[in-house]
Amino acid sequence: MNTSCQRLLPFLVLASLPLSAAEKLEFNRDVRPILSDKCFHCHGADAGHRKGDLRLDIRAEALKPAESGETAIVPGQPERSEVVKRVELGHDDDDVMPPEKSGKPLTSAEKAILRQWIAEGAEYQGHWAFTPLKKSSEAIKDENGKQLQSSAVIDYLIRKRLSKEGLTPSPEAAPATLIRRVALDLTGLPPTPELIAKYESNWSTKAYESLVDELLASPHYGERMAMQWLDFARYADSNGFQTDSSRQMWPWRDWVIKAFNNNKPFDQFTIEQIAGDLLPNAKRDQIIATGFNRNHRINGEGGIIAEEWRIENIMDRVETTSATWMALTMNCCRCHDHKYDPLTMKDFYSFFAFFNNVPESGTIMGKSNRSGGNSDPVIDVPDAEDEVQLAALKKKIDAAQAKVNEAELQLPNLVASWEAEMESPESEKKEMWDALPITDVKSEGKASPRKLPDGSWIIGGRNPNNDTYIATAPLKEGQLTGLLLHALPDPSLPNQSLGRAFNGNFVLSGIEAQITAPGAKPVKVNFTRAEADYSQKGYDVKLILDKDPNNGWAIDGNDPKKRLERKAMFVADKPVAVPANASITVKLIHSGRFGGHNIGRFKLATTNDDPALVSLDGTGGPPEAVLAAMKTPTEVRTPKQRAELEKYFRSAVDSPLRDADYALAAAKAELEKAERALPNVMVMQELPTPRDAFVLKRGEYDKPGEKVTMATPAVLPPMPKDTANNRLGLAKWLVDPSNPLTARVWINRAWEKFFGYGISKTAENLGSQSEYPVHPELLDWLASEFIRSGWNMKAMHKTILMSATYRQSSKVTPALLEKDPENRLLARGPRFRLEGEVVRDQALAIAGLLVPKVGGPSVKPYMPDGVWDDTSKYGDLRGYKADTGEGLYRRSFYTIWKRTAAPPTMLMFDAPSREVCTVKRSRTNTPLQALSLLNEVTFVEAARAFGEKMIREGGTTPEQRLTWAFKRALARAPTDKEVQVLASGLKARQAKFQAEPESAKQFLATGTHKQASGIPEHELAAYGVTASVILNMNEIVTKP
Amino acid sequence: MNLQDTLNRRLFLKHSTQLGAAALGSLLAGESLAAAPRAFPNYAPKAKRIIYLFQSGAPSQMDLFDPKPQMAKHRAENLPESIRQGQRLTTMTSGQKSFPVAPSMFKFSKQGKCGMELSELIPHIGGVADELCLIRSMFTEAINHDPAITFCQTGSQLAGRPSIGAWLSYGLGSVNKDLPAYVVMTSFGTGRRDDQPLYDRLWGSGFLPTQHQGVRFRNAGDPVLYLSNPAGVDRPMRRQMLDELAALNEQDFQTFGDPETQTRIAQYEMAFRMQMSVPDLVDTKNEPQHILDMYGPDVTKPGTYAANCLLARRLAERDVRCIQLFHMGWDHHGGLPKAIKGQCNDTDQATAALIKDLKQRGLLDDTLIVWGGEFGRTIYSQGTLTETNYGRDHHPRCYSIFMAGAGVKKGYVHGETDDYSYNIVRDGVHVHDLNATIMHILGINHERLNFKFQGLDMRLTGVAGNLVKPVLA
Description:
The complex is a heterodimer of chains A (1040) and B (473).
Chain A: H1 2-7, H2 12-16, H3 27-38, H4 40-43, H5 59-62, H6 82-87, H7 108-119, H8 151-164, H9 175-187, H10 193-200, H11 205-216, H12 219-232, H13 250-261, H14 266-275, H15 284-289, H16 306-326, H17 345-354, E1 378-380, H18 384-408, H19 411-421, E2 430-431, E3 434-435, E4 440-443, E5 447-451, E6 457-461, E7 468-475, E8 478-487, E9 510-516, E10 523-524, E11 527-532, E12 566-578, E13 582-589, E14 601-607, E15 619-620, H20 624-631, H21 639-652, H22 656-677, E16 680-682, E17 693-696, E18 704-708, H23 727-734, H24 742-755, H25 776-788, H26 793-801, H27 804-807, H28 814-819, H29 836-847, H30 904-908, H31 927-935, H32 937-953, H33 958-970, H34 976-995, H35 997-1004, H36 1017-1031
Antiparallel strand pairs in A: 1-16, 2-15, 3-14, 4-7, 5-6, 6-14, 7-13, 8-12, 8-14, 9-10, 9-13, 11-12, 17-18
Helix pairs in contact in A: 3-7, 8-25, 9-10, 9-11, 12-13, 14-23, 18-22, 20-21, 24-25, 24-26, 29-32, 31-32, 32-33, 32-36, 33-34, 34-35, 34-36, 35-36
Chain B: H1 3-15, H2 21-24, E1 49-55, H3 61-64, H4 81-84, E2 108-111, E3 116-119, H5 123-127, E4 132-139, H6 145-154, H7 164-172, E5 182-187, E6 215-216, H8 235-256, H9 259-282, H10 289-295, H11 305-317, E7 322-327, H12 336-360, E8 367-372, E9 376-381, E10 392-395, E11 399-405, E12 412-414, E13 416-417, E14 424-426, E15 429-430, H13 431-441, E16 451-453, E17 456-458
Parallel strand pairs in B: 1-7, 1-8, 4-12, 4-15, 5-6, 5-7
Antiparallel strand pairs in B: 2-3, 4-11, 8-11, 9-10, 13-14, 16-17
């Protein structure tokens, strides 16, 4: 396809521009690309793979005699230079360079360049992107010595080059075209008729400037800019990898939108995303920003080795950070020194060390692997309403605490009177729990329970998502006050743990007990107290007693160190009488959202002891230490004894103090629950002590070599003084004015955004293998001006957009197309296909369906059946159900993004999968795109709604309506020919739909948009189909 | 030929090295592009197309392809350390107290004239043993599914690289102008329905232009997304819409001179043709009963492996370059004997039928078939070993796959594993080697098919891959 051909012909413009013989070669422009691509692989920075001990990337080395005794380069004397001799050998000669098997022969032009360069003295230059930026105060002057500023610099430099090439710039595009172009570029939305009316009629440069200012101030500017940042940041709503369950990073995405809208300076934008958490007194927003480096995938596949994937997380951060800010391919140094750039493995792992200190496991095992959720570290993101609720709950805790404090004052008195009432300390002591002889266990989920010799029961066979076990046992006469559940590990269970989930965990969400006896009414036991010897964070055993069937008690069964027997007891509010010949049925309910998290092996016990005295440890009454204290006369008790006694009393004996303690615990649990319900976002955090970092041999997690410390690559300027050597220092280093890369990288990409290609085409890589910039002086001036402006993003965009270069018409002649097919020289304005998101957003906007709300959780527009479910039965992102209402019509980049099955239309329009950092999208032109625009519900519904608007708002005749439609969709009036083509088609469709009312009805039933009443259906359908033709025009999907 | 095509041709002829032309014959390119000069194939291809039957989840080699009768006498013994050699295990079994040897419950016997030993689980495949080139010495690097499947398909364990089909589409282009060059079909197995899931990236285009991504035929609804006109719009009306659209776009081209516009017109026409060619392709109602019978009873159920095998043949007949089936359900950590029977029931007959059907049509002569998963399974039992039950964990050190058809030896077994099917003792074949060999058979030198990305010449086989010459016919 055309576009891909263009991509495949790098250096095209340069290669097609003949070198005038008189002009001296420039190393970076003319020679380095040849050496880098054809020679450095074996004669470059990577010492491990260097051949013949010859290094060509450093002049002094290239001038020394090599292993063979020959000298590669003798300046001024190509005849004596081995390089020239060897490259000019016949391709079948064994000694030819590059060797035949490299598959990279030099062209004769390239050979001539090497010869000429050596003849001219073989001067080297440092790699262009690594050389320091000149200050922009060294202003650009025109031929008359006049200092140029801002956009004028762009036009001056572009035109200087054009005139050298014998080209002339194009005239300015028509106002309406320009309005559409700049609106699409800055907001990703077509201009409204009002906006066009406001500016088109009294068009001037001033008016254009106001328009640019207005668009820069639009809340949709931030969305438009964030769109690409999400590709860099590999942002998604799922964890990626095998299970690909859900995660929630939209608060970070909203931070990005806000940052662009508030014109946060790029240096601050950088510092907060890399290391906002390490700023002094970091604000919540600054911590949220660090979500950038938590957007990577996290693996949760069963059986993985956590450390292997923790290392991969860091690899990803290094790759993403270096590609995003520096356009360097540092990941090449994972296994060996860089082949092309002066970056070593040690540089790589020293950079790695900055990101190695996050308190993370490397996996999402057991936590949110299947059910979804964020992995630590996270930060809560409360909204204003949440803040109010949290404040109220905290107040409640304060009040409960005050009551506890008050009651505590009575503690010595309470203990004294309790002791006074007691017969003897020993009378308090007795074995409390009687093992329950379970005779039968049934599984509602058709699992197969089996009794083990020790009286416990193990559950085998099927493991449904939510099982309930019903255990039955005889119960001895008397009373019942409590139930004790033992959960036991077993070698046959997953991970030899306690639960049946694949990871060995369980979540018990409910427990019910009922006593039955012949002739008596069944009695349900009302449990009001629950305690366990261990509860997983967020899964306290008390949650079993609340009414919520989703939460419950879990025991970290996925953690290899925690696969131990666990006990939980449930105590009744008051003793329940047990008649003779009674039996008890106990229901263990697993109704949580974690599939298969059922207990694997258990046994039960009961007690008839005083509810107030029931305790977990199995022996009723005070433990030994407390008994000893009680036997000691009050006046000689040590403070420790007093404390132990009081502690026991407080937890075991019914008293006003215990009531107060319970109330406080309940209030705290309520707050914890509310906090758990808050949206949160994954963020960076630094361990108090950094982890050791090593060079990893062959890049493998289990092959540590030399130890390294945090450091930036040696070839680049050092970290600024007064910065700490940590992630924050790294962030500051990235945006230090001495860093030659960051500003160039960002400017180059801004250029790419507006003109289709960067000034250096290889926007993803400005290393040695990059394309030499087609307008080097301009790139450097813009970059230094960007720094000088205080990294002002909106100002930089405005400078570019105000240029006459940007404002040119994009019409092209065959001659110009042949000379400059990719429009690198910019003798015409930019013209290329819009991104997938913009294609869809535009259709919704034109149709009047777009819901322009900014930010918030991701949404679910229409999607064909099976996109999620055809290829996976894992994770919680299955059974896609489209939203109703506004979720169908939000901007496309709010669409929920599952990485292993991403929104198909976006993929067809070249969106990346967001599994890894993607700096550049391809731009293809395929029949699948045509099918989508013609047939997908979203686009058909938009056409239907647009057709209806044509009728309602476009006037009364077909010609008026078509004219109105063109203005709305394309910001221009149609030509006579266009009206004629569409009007005749419309007429035919009106007749056809009138003759086939059923077809009209069917067409109008696409999508959920309600059609207007009072317009005949055949009219609506005919205009709808006509609108579909308009919405499929090449001009629609193309930036004008 | 439109302006941009002319231009591209000219530019290409002027500047091309070994690259470049490849993409001219791109996946769904307009027909005018197909005539462009091409650097690939590098040499006369043995196969024009490939049907890759991927078995997701890792089929157990010692229960299907790699007989180890001597294991019977070591039943339930702990796997000797001399065999395990400290090699890493997944955390699903690394905590096991013992690693009891679980001999296969299934009988092997010599099949065909070649006498290839195959399991009773795959009698139909056994029936075509004389067509097979069995490799018993495959090995890989990853020990978990996601990275391992990704590695097979893209040559890298991590996301971001193009899949083998995308590389072939990019390198060889499309022969059929009405169908994609790379078609993917998926099916759930009955052995263990949830394992292993699949991901878009397995047929993705990575850093290659996106038109090279595999087009997944769907099991319900439109076989290709958005293929059907909206309700109420019939084919004549669509034709008229496209005529109007072409007229409008032609005017756009006259005004702006942008060659992309011409391409877009051509792509809409191809879309229109696909609306005929795809339904025709998937409509199997005219297949004679004896052909349907060959593929087995599932063949009439859309979305089954058998139905997909029949479609694979129909795609091969239409010269689709790369046809890939993914069948899920091979991940048998527990209850293997029962689960593997389900999987074989899904795949055995249909796989053999596909080979026979291609052969009787003469298509096996220029079609390469590959059948295999992402790694092997352990000889030791995961979980309890009983008389009738065992499970097997992941095992990347050795596994079996087979090839058939164009370019490979028939009735041939390559490589050998030790008594425990744990280590390779002879002729190991790495995933990169297999991919290099597949590309070779399709006429591509795997070291030559590369794409510049981030300044590097990237290829499917990384910096590795050796042609496995002994398997070549």
